[in-house]
């Protein structure tokens, strides 16, 4: 029998799993059960789209059996099974979600917690097993195959016997060591708890043979043991439950279970819509930027279910780009299962759902801003940029959706403020919303151009993000107040006649200014006496459409 080697990156993940000192090794069961459930989903989907197949719900289940004596734990399913090739491809090569975790290898080493929250997949079995055996028969195939591996040394595949379609995963559980207890993964009680904890919402029954005891017949003191098969999980998916039945922990667990992220979401949104289009949705606003968020690999989208069956992993039509950080799922009875991606783009129901969801997210964010300011600011630090891009790429209504969610650093408050807050503090005579652009708050503090506006007692918004100025150029005004750069030549501020009136200086210095202008001929348009300076001798100002800072950004962009 030939022993095959794992692909290089699989091997590294495998090593990581085998040598993991991660304390929540129990998640291996969650991973194997979720694979079993996926395999049954595939079967169900096939039956729905293929008339020659039928799906009898009772025939589909997952079973967990422990054999303490031989230290074996078996997880079997009646799912779609794997062919010989699929066994090689799926188990010999790292799977997608596994590779995600893999990219974060450094984090895995430093923070073992992340393993538990990420989709580490099939290989997690090696955290508790010295040998993993997979026996599988694929739908439509007459042969069954046995895949077996002890970890790093590779794996073998050979034909074997199996009556029914499906997969059996058999784990030979490791012996206890001084630091690690593996025995518990053979205990009914522990297994039951692990299933409840992580796999309660799996839509197919997860069965176990539980040992029970009852009074012996004709006796009132002697007990006898008997075995009864029981379904451990609740099965009703979380999104079909009533909000009142669910705790924040339930939602968080769902977030981890679904591998939406490894942070703790800032907010969950549970929607049960009964209107024009019926759907359930659970959405999450993450706290941290996903590590691939600003890369090309990042795909926005929500999981799309049609009446409980997953039809698409990342349905991008459901989210506008400016909310691309939102994670979650939508389940609707009104969508056809046979819908294709092209059809989805034009689907009226889907468009309605998307619109509805966008509104909901906006309102929840406003609510967060109003009632949990600190959390909102955390969120804004992570995703504010995305909102600003949203305004910048305005397609009709983006501006309206997003303008109240924007925040900028304020010269007065020394923290992030909303435009609404800015307006509400404006003295009556103030005409514009003033802003200053620069590399950092500290730099802007020192800008001579801010002096006059600040002296007037007006608040200045600091634009340190390169997108900021573009954003407000598109926004143009907020509550009828236009934006004005502190470096524009007309600040709209009434000048008082005082010692700063340098009209006489203007004449006296004419020669000097001409001289300066000559020297700086290709660098400045004009040299003038300024009324705006208090403590600084000189500053730049411009009459153009954009500020000097923005010109800098544009010039770096065009390089
Ligand atoms: P993921 O589930 O994220 O794809 P896994 O490492 O958990 O990654 O699983 C790898 C692949 O192995 C799955 O995508 C699937 O194709 C296959 N697989 C694993 N377990 C089963 C099973 N019980 N039945 C059918 N296929 C399975
Ligand atoms: Mg999996």
UniProtKB/TrEMBL annotation:
Q: CDD domains per the record?
A: HATPase_Hsp90-like
Please give the residue ranges the record annotates as the region A.
1-341
The Gene Ontology terms for molecular function here are:
ATP binding; ATP hydrolysis activity; ATP-dependent protein folding chaperone; unfolded protein binding
Q: Where in the cell is it found?
A: Cytoplasm
**InterPro entries, alphabetically?**
HATPase_C_sf, Heat_shock_protein_90_CS, HSP90_C, Hsp90_fam, Hsp90_N, Ribosomal_Su5_D2-typ_SF
User: Cellular component terms, GO, for this chain's entry?
Assistant: cytoplasm
Q: Which UniProt keywords apply?
A: ATP-binding, Chaperone, Cytoplasm, Nucleotide-binding, Stress response
Signal peptide region: none
For the ligand (ATP), the binding residues are 31, 35, 77, 82, 96-98, 117-122, 167, 341
Q: Which Pfam families match?
A: HATPase_c_3, HSP90
Q: Assembly state and interactors?
A: Homodimer.
Q: What does this protein do?
A: Molecular chaperone. Has ATPase activity.
- Family the UniProt entry places it in: Belongs to the heat shock protein 90 family.
Task: Please identify the protein, giving its name as recorded.
Answer: Chaperone protein HtpG
Q: Which organism is it from?
A: Gottschalkia purinilytica (Clostridium purinilyticum)
Q: What is the lineage of its organism?
A: Bacteria, Bacillati, Bacillota, Tissierellia, Tissierellales
């Amino acid at each position: 029998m030939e022993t095959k080697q794992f692909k290089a990156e699989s091997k590294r993940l495998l090593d990581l799993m085998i040598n993991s000192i991660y304390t929540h090794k129990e998640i291996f069961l969650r991973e194997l059960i979720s694979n079993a459930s996926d395999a049954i989903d595939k079967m169900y989907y096939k039956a729905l789209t293929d008339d020659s197949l039928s799906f009898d719900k009772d025939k589909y289940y997952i079973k967990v059996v422990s054999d303490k004596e031989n230290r074996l734990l078996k997880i079997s399913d009646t799912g779609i099974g794997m062919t010989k090739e699929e066994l090689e491809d799926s188990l010999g090569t790292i799977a997608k979600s596994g590779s995600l975790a893999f990219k974060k290898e450094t984090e895995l080493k430093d923070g073992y917690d992340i393993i538990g929250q990420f989709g580490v997949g099939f290989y997690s079995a090696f955290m508790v097993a010295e040998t993993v055996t997979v026996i599988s028969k694929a739908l439509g195939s007459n042969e069954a195959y046995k895949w077996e591996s002890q970890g790093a040394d590779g794996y073998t595949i050979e034909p074997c016997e199996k009556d029914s379609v499906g997969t059996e995963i058999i784990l030979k559980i490791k012996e206890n060591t001084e630091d690690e207890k593996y025995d518990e993964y053979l205990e009914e009680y522990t297994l039951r708890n692990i299933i409840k904890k992580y796999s309660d919402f799996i839509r197919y029954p997860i069965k176990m043979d539980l040992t029970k005891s009852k009074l012996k017949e004709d006796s009132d003191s002697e007990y006898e043991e008997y075995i009864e098969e029981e379904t451990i999980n609740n099965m009703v998916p979380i999104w079909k439950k009533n909000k009142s039945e669910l705790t924040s922990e339930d939602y968080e667990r769902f977030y981890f279970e679904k591998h939406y992220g490894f942070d703790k979401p800032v907010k969950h949104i549970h929607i049960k819509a009964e209107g024009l289009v019926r759907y359930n949705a659970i959405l999450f606003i993450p706290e941290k930027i996903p590590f691939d968020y600003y890369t090309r690999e990042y795909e926005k989208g929500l999981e799309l279910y049609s009446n409980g069956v997953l039809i698409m992993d990342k349905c991008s039509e459901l989210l506008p780009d400016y909310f691309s950080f939102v994670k979650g799922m939508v389940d609707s009875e009104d969508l056809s299962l046979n819908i294709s991606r092209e059809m989805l783009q034009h689907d009226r129901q889907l468009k309605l759902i998307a619109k509805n969801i966008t509104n909901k997210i906006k309102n929840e964010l406003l609510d967060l801003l109003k009632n949990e300011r600190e959390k909102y600011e955390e969120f804004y630090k992570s995703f504010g940029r995305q909102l600003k891009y949203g305004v910048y790429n305005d397609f009709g209504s983006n501006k309206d959706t997003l303008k109240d969610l924007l925040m900028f650093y304020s010269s007065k408050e020394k923290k992030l403020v909303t435009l609404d807050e800015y307006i509400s503090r404006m003295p009556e005579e103030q005409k514009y919303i003033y802003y200053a652009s620069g590399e950092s708050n500290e730099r802007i503090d020192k800008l001579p151009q801010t002096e006059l506006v600040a002296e007037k007692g007006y608040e200045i918004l600091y634009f340190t993000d390169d997108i900021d100025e573009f954003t407000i150029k598109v926004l143009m005004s907020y509550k009828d107040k236009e934006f004005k750069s502190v470096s524009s030549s007309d600040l709209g501020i009434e000048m008082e006649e005082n010692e700063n009136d340098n009209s006489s200086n203007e004449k006296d210095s004419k020669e000097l200014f001409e001289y300066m202008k000559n020297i700086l001929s290709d660098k400045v348009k004009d040299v003038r006496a300024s009324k705006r300076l208090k403590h600084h001798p000189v500053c730049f100002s411009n009459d153009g459409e954009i500020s000097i800072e923005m010109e800098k950004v544009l010039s770096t962009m065009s390089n």
